[in-house]
């Protein structure tokens, strides 16, 4: 039976991407060697790195003066690298969920942190819009897509101070005006690649301004000045990212990714709103196109396990909601075909008809 992978991460990738990566693991370009066993200093791997960085810049229209880095450690290491490199006295954070809170917690190790707004009291069902960012903050940190709660900020804010964004779970799902950001980072395993690589887009001129010494590996300048080759980079995840970038380009770029994301999300949210057995958890003005969270309506609460089993039987994978929200979460990343969402909608309708 066809399986539809709605997992939140690691998550669905285009079949072509997985096939090309698997092939490279066996015999890279007919060289008789796996990409796994080749030196990262060969011209063959250098070409992979160069093309991945170039395509990354091309697809997002990244202006001059920014570096694209591929490093290890996951988005979670960025939670401390950002303040290590940028926080001199004070930083501002928007608290929109578990990941935002984890980022904020790390920043406190380095200086004063102002939480400009939080939707914690409402279990992060919306993205706050009314707040003031202190003009003397070194930077303002946001999480554009809250993977766990299914909320998303789908606009590029005008910030009075350098803007830093965790875009782990919505990068390449829409055009982004990178010039409005000082730094954008994310783990690759949601919308770009397999786990193991972290991307960082950083405006070169914001680096080197803090007075503290920074350990070599945690200093963005180390990676920027060496083209992400200071030490051995995660070669296979970078190769896999390159395949995804090529796939995005071939499909029509981020504008097309956005069109598809809207199409998928409209279809699923329409069913959630129509079907009396379900209800969405995120406020409508904050609904994510990537992670679509819903629960059983109150009168059907006791059927939650039954629907989960029913959906799994029909080939839906990874739709159990995060424990903080409960219910269901259908992650609809770039590689999710519309057919997958149609299959889930059919499943919801069939379940409704049975009850
Ligand atoms: C998954 C996720 C993270 C954590 O990423 P790791 O690479 O596992 O550290 C951070 N932020 C957001 C928004 C995420 O979705």
Q: How are the SSEs ordered, and which strands pair?
A:
Blueprint: E1 4-5, H1 15-26, H2 43-60, E2 66-71, H3 74-86, E3 90-95, H4 98-107, E4 112-118, E5 140-143, E6 145-146, E7 151-152, E8 163-166, E9 183-187, E10 198-203, H5 220-225, H6 235-251, H7 253-274, E11 278-280, E12 291-296, H8 304-313, E13 316-317, E14 328-331, H9 338-354
Parallel strand pairs: 1-13, 3-4, 3-5, 5-8, 8-9
Antiparallel strand pairs: 2-10, 6-7, 9-10, 11-12, 12-14
Helix pairs in contact: 1-6, 2-6, 3-4, 6-7, 7-9
This protein binds pyridoxal-5'-phosphate.
Would you summarize the structure shown here?
By secondary structure, the protein is of the alpha/beta class. The chain contains nine helices and 14 strands.
The unreliable regions are none
Question: Whole-number average pLDDT?
Answer: 97
CATH class descriptor of the largest domain: Alpha Beta
Please, how many domains?
2
Q: How many strand units? A: 14
Helical residues, percent:
25-40%
Number of helices: 9
Radius of gyration: 21 Å
User: Could you say what the CATH architecture of the largest domain is?
Assistant: 3-Layer(aba) Sandwich
Element-level helix/strand string: EHHEHEHEEEEEEEHHHEEHEEH
Report the sheet-strand fraction: 15-25%
Q: In the CATH scheme, what's the topology name of the largest domain?
A: Aspartate Aminotransferase, domain 2
Overall outline: globular
Q: How far apart are the termini?
A: 25 Å
**Structural category:** alpha/beta
Bound molecules: pyridoxal-5'-phosphate
Q: Give the neighbour order of strands across the main sheet.
A: 2-10-9-8-5-3-4
CATH superfamily of the largest domain: Type I PLP-dependent aspartate aminotransferase-like (Major domain)
- Characterize the largest beta sheet: strand count, sense, and whether it forms a barrel: 7 strands, mixed
């Amino acid at each position: 039976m066809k399986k539809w992978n709605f997992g939140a991460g690691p998550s669905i990738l285009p079949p072509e991407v997985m096939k090309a990566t698997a092939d490279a693991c066996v015999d890279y370009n007919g060289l008789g060697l796996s990409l796994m066993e080749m030196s990262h200093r060969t011209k063959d791997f250098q070409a992979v790195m160069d093309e991945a960085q170039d395509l990354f810049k091309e697809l997002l229209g990244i202006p001059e003066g920014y570096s694209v880095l591929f490093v290890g450690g996951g988005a979670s290491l960025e939670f401390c690298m950002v303040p290590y490199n940028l926080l001199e006295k004070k930083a501002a954070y928007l608290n929109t969920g578990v990941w935002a809170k984890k980022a904020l917690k790390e920043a406190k190790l380095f200086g004063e942190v102002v939480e400009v707004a939080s939707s914690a009291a409402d279990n992060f069902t919306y993205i706050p819009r009314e707040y003031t960012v202190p003009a003397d903050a070194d930077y303002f940190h946001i999480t554009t897509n809250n993977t766990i709660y299914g909320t998303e900020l789908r606009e590029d804010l005008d910030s009075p101070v350098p803007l830093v964004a965790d875009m782990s779970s919505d990068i390449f799902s829409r055009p982004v005006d990178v010039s409005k950001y000082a730094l954008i980072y994310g783990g690759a395993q949601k919308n770009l690649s397999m786990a193991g690589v972290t991307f960082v887009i950083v405006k070169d001129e914001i680096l080197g301004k803090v007075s503290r010494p920074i350990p070599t590996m945690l200093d963005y300048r180390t990676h920027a000045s060496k083209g992400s080759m200071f030490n051995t980079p995660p070669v296979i995840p970078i190769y896999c990212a390159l395949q995804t970038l090529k796939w995005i380009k071939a499909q029509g770029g981020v504008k097309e990714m956005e069109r598809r994301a809207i199409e998928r999300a409209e279809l699923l949210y329409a069913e959630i709103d129509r079907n009396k057995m379900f209800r969405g958890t995120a406020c409508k003005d904050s609904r994510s196109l990537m992670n679509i969270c819903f629960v059983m309506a109150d009168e059907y609460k006791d059927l939650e396990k039954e629907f989960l089993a029913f959906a799994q039987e029909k080939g839906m994978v990874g739709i159990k909601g995060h424990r903080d929200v409960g219910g269901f979460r259908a992650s609809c990343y770039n590689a999710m075909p519309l057919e997958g969402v149609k299959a889930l909608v059919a499943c919801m309708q069939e379940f409704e008809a049975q009850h």
